[in-house]
Amino acid sequence: MKTLIISSDEKTVCKLNQYVSNLNISSEIISLFVDIENINPFYVLNTIKTKKDISQFNLIILSDAEKDQELAGLIVGNYGFSSITSFSNLVKNDEGLLVQREAYGGLAYMNLKAKSFPLVLTCTSSVFTDIPVNDISIEKISKFETDRKIVVTSVKKISKAVDIGSAKKIVAIGRGLAKKEDLSLIESLTSSLKAEIGCSRPLSEDYNWLPLERQVGLTGETVRPQLYLAVGISGQVQHLAGMRDSKVVVAINNNKNAPIFDSCDYGILGDLYEVVPLLHEKLGAFV
């Protein structure tokens, strides 16, 4: 089986190469880093075509990053290949190659048997997050065949005020907070922890207390911080789907039956208006 790995991020290419190597499913692995910045994905694919016969590969694997997903879609559309998106693991057994995908917000998994090749796959970042970046041989494409009649004269980047998806520490607040003015209480705690503020869906979509870019869950951001402190969050499945890959989860809730206590490493049963100030005070002594 031959595998082609493509990504717009060089570290991702290296990590995916190591991931596939560890699986022992491929006799040949070609890793391709496409250094694209403000390049139409059509041009990217056309350039790759001049360098690689994509149809000769059994597996074409990309990440679920935005640029990679666009390129994956173009490959499927141009070649008519089969595809499976957002896989979380690959398993080779006596039945062949099984592609594992999450279902119901990560509460269950689907095992899909790969029958049609070439197969285009995109994977979630959880597949390679913990894989170290090793020195491997990768190919780099930085010059692309473009339509010279089209000239980009200027580019305007619209960036988020905060990228909560890359935060190492997150203090997430839910409906346990009584009023918007009390956000200052949470801000003091995040300052002590040097963390970002996150929230559940009601606080961003219903109450408009925080911007949507801070919402964690199925309809918000998926985060994987080292520390996730859930304050006044009950722990509905929609929210858990967005933070369940956190390294350490600490929950503060005054309801002993709150589902969040079934999904945390440490739980504090108590009123957030009493617990948060105490945490801030104790943490302040170490800052």
Automatic annotation (TrEMBL):
Q: Please share the entry's free-text remark on the cofactor.
A: Binds 1 FAD per dimer.
Electron transfer flavoprotein alpha subunit C-terminal domain location is 163-244
* Sorted UniProt keywords: Electron transport, FAD, Flavoprotein, Transport
| Cofactor(s) for this UniProt protein | FAD
List the signal peptide residues.
none
InterPro entries attached here?
Answer: DHS-like_NAD/FAD-binding_dom (IPR029035), ETF_a/FixB (IPR001308), ETF_asu_C (IPR014731), ETF_asu_C_CS (IPR018206), Rossmann-like_a/b/a_fold (IPR014729)
One Gene Ontology MF term: flavin adenine dinucleotide binding
Enumerate the Gene Ontology biological process terms.
fatty acid beta-oxidation using acyl-CoA dehydrogenase
Q: Where does FAD bind?
A: 175, 200-201, 215-219, 232-239, 253
Q: Name one Pfam family in it.
A: ETF_alpha
Q: Which family does it belong to?
A: Belongs to the ETF alpha-subunit/FixB family.
Tell me the protein's name: Electron transfer flavoprotein alpha subunit apoprotein
Q: What is the lineage of its organism?
A: Bacteria, Pseudomonadati, Thermodesulfobacteriota, Desulfobulbia, Desulfobulbales
